[in-house]
Design a protein that fits this description.
This protein is an alpha/beta fold. It has 16 helices and twelve strands. The strands form three sheets. A seven-stranded parallel β-sheet has the order 2-3-4-5-6-8-10. The chain has a three-stranded parallel β-sheet with strand order 11-1-12, covered by helices on one side. Helix 4 packs parallel to helix 5. It is globular, with a radius of gyration of 19 Å. Bound molecules: S-adenosyl-L-homocysteine and iron/sulfur cluster. The site of iron/sulfur cluster has 9 residues, from loops.
Length: 366
């Protein structure tokens, strides 16, 4: 099949794309071809979810982490890092700012902790954010693997969306990225627990990882579909100088152009294949090119997570090298964001939760 025909099929019936077809789209390299791919994905985005950008103000609540993922800059084993945990009034202040900016929702993200004090702290933070915003702010959590009981507690406190990336759907690849005591099965099971607890569930993977093949990415797409995810948050793998994966594979992740294109193609193919989910245009894209997030929107993404963490903490929350915006404040981030969204002819969905249409449709069906 010629590429225009394949893309026509993808636009009209993207769910019917076969594995070889998905692989072919992910392997396009000619800039004219990838441009056509992005345009096809944009057509589906416009039709299925519209061209409004939903925002989630990102609050990086702390970098204490009990895990040791080989790729991550804030892993437990990184001794060259000043550890921090925001206090409740600081989180409340950042949420208040997101509310004043009319971002509509916030994400609390941080290293993984499961001690009782932390569980209480998060429940209290969620309740406080609800209270100070008069219930206006939607709350997404991205705090790793927890028990069903903890997920339920935080849901009852007022959180309604949760992001937990599987990182890699190929168990072998997952094993190469994590120490032996990090369990693929447990992480996968947590996605089921989150759904059981009532959340809109988001997951995703890193793209361009050491030893990752196109077939792995096709597996990732099938995993998204099979798990019936509401939201997809994925981005290019970027090396961190203190992470063991960087030392083990020093040549991987440094070709910024290639990582960016791989990330954009994965967004586009995900849009064609899943249709009505929310897809984040992530900060990792922006780390690779100043206009990376805009390119992500044009490739089919419809969610942006502007950082609202106080500037003084941003340098201590670097998951990878080259994190953008570590020395700009939230107002500066906001002005930049306004301009970048306008530059691609889109508008921001101010003051709304911006839930995934896929979630609403599934609930109507049930
Ligand atoms: N601790 C939580 C949330 C914080 S980490 C968790 O792990 O779920 C959030 C995401 O950052 C991870 O899911 C991972 O996909 C991403 N990340 C970490 N290190 C990265 C790197 N070196 N390059 C790209 N993304 C990375
Ligand atoms: Fe901790 Fe998340 Fe980083 Fe893994 S990816 S080390 S769980 S912060």
């Amino acid at each position: 099949m010629r590429l225009p025909e394949l893309l026509r099929k993808a636009v009209d019936n993207g769910r019917d794309l076969t594995r070889p077809e998905l692989r072919r789209l992910l392997e396009l390299t000619d800039p004219a071809d990838t441009q056509q791919l992005f345009e096809a994905a944009y057509e589906v985005k416009r039709r299925e979810v519209g061209c409004l950008v939903h925002l989630r103000g990102l609050i990086e609540i702390g970098n204490l982490c009990s895990k040791n993922c080989y790729y991550c800059g804030i892993r437990r084993g990184n001794r060259r890092l000043k550890r921090f945990q925001l206090a409740l009034p600081e989180i409340v202040e950042m949420a208040r700012e997101a509310d004043e900016f009319r971002y509509g929702s916030v994400v609390l993200q941080g290293g993984e902790r499961s001690d009782a004090a932390f569980v209480d702290f998060i429940a209290g933070a969620v309740e406080a954010i609800k209270r100070i915003s008069g219930g206006r702010l939607g709350i997404t959590l991205s705090l790793g693997e927890q028990s069903l009981e903890v997920y339920r507690r935080w849901f009852a406190a007022g959180a309604h969306r949760y992001l937990l990336r599987l990182e890699a759907s190929n168990p072998e690849l997952y094993r190469r990225l994590h120490p032996a005591d990090h369990s693929y099965d447990q992480r996968l099971a947590c996605l089921g627990l989150l759904r059981q607890a009532g959340y809109q569930v988001g997951s995703g993977v890193m793209i361009g990882l050491p030893t990752q093949t196109t077939d792995d990415l096709v597996d990732d797409l099938e995993f998204f579909r099979r798990t019936d995810l509401d939201m997809i948050g994925m981005g290019p793998y970027l090396p961190h100088d203190q992470a063991p994966l960087t030392a083990a594979y020093p040549e991987v992740g440094n070709d910024r152009g290639k990582q960016l294109q791989a990330g954009l193609k994965m967004i586009a193919v995900t849009r064609l294949y899943l249709r009505d989910v929310n897809i984040a245009s992530t900060t990792a894209l922006q780390a690779l090119a100043p206009n990376g997030r805009e390119l992500g929107l044009l490739a089919g993404g419809n969610v942006i997570m502007p950082n609202v963490t106080a500037t003084r903490y941003r340098a201590s929350y670097q998951l990878y090298n080259g994190k953008p915006g570590i020395d700009e404040n939230s107002s500066e981030s906001r002005e930049k964001l306004e301009k970048s969204v306008a530059s691609v002819g889109e508008a921001i969905d101010y003051g709304q939760w911006g839930d995934s249409p896929h979630f609403a449709r599934r609930n109507r069906r049930n």
